[in-house]
Amino acid sequence: MRNLVDVSEIVGLSAVQRRESRGAHYRSDFPKKNNKEYLKNFFIKRVNGQGKIYERPVEFTRLKPEDIKFE
Predict the structure, then answer these.
(1) What's the pLDDT score for residue 57?
(2) Is residue 44 within 8 Å of 14, Cβ to Cβ?
(3) Beta 50-57 vs 40-47: how paired, if at all?
(4) For residues 13 and 15, what is the distance between their CA atoms, to the nearest angstrom?
(5) What are 12-29's pLDDT values in tens digits?
(6) Is 0.70 surpassed by the pTM of this model?
């Protein structure tokens, strides 16, 4: 049960952080993709018992940025 609570917290934190819709993550208040600001990966680490959100740029291994349609 503890793991389910931890994962639920992480999913919620990342969903609130990303103010756009992308893939299975849909937000009615932000219905479109925003590649300009959110073409990055979010990851979360527990620091002092709290989830801390970090970001890093996407590493393009198959597609080049110029192949991606920015909306």
Answers:
(1) 86
(2) yes
(3) antiparallel
(4) 6
(5) 888 888 888 888 888 999
(6) no
Give the Å distances, CA to CA, from 9 to 15, 28, 58.
10, 20, 23
**Confidence grade of residue 4 (pLDDT, cut at 50, 70, 90):** very high
Residues paired with residue 46 on neighbouring β-strands, in sequence order: 51
Q: What is the 3-state secondary structure (H, E, C) of 13-66?
A: HHHHHCCCCECCECECCECCCCHHHHCEEEEEEEECCEEEEEEEECCCCCCCHH
With H, G, I as helix, E, B as strand and everything else as coil, classify residue 68: coil
Q: How far is CA 52 from CA 13, 14, 61, 63, 70, in A?
A: 9, 10, 27, 29, 28
Residue of 53, 21, 52, 61 whose CA lies nearest to 38: 21
